């Protein structure tokens, strides 16, 4: 069975739901810890995904900068 693709937006929505559940004063300590652990895992995965996205954006930007510089060099040589 294929893994579902991770979505930061869906993770944030799930984190909001976890927060709402944890605000319930009648929630047991055990359930609180379960929700807390799940929230920490989601935050870690979001952080990794956002870091990877940022790295990809930097690489793309550097590629654009190189193309711009090459275009400028070609115009100067004409």
Tell me about this structure:
The protein has 78 residues and is an all-alpha fold. The protein is built from 2 helices and no strands. The longest helix is centred in the last third of the chain and has 49 residues, at 29-77. The mean pLDDT is 88.
How many helices?
2
Number of strand elements: 0
Secondary-structure content class = mainly alpha
Main sheet, how many strands, which sense, barrel?
none
Q: Low-confidence segments, ≥5 residues, pLDDT <50?
A: none
Rg, nearest Å? 22 Å
N-to-C order of helices and strands: HH
Principal-axis shape: rod-shaped
Average pLDDT number? 88
Fraction in beta strands? under 5%
How helix-rich are the residues, as a percent range? over 70%
Q: Ends: how far apart?
A: 58 Å
């Amino acid at each position: 069975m294929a893994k579902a693709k991770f979505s930061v937006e869906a993770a944030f929505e799930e984190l909001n739901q976890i927060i709402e559940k944890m605000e319930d004063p009648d929630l047991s300590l055990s359930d609180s810890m379960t929700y807390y652990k799940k929230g920490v895992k989601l935050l870690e995965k979001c952080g990794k995904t956002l870091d990877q996205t940022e790295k990809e954006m930097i690489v793309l930007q550097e590629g654009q900068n190189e193309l711009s510089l090459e275009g400028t060099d070609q115009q100067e040589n004409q």
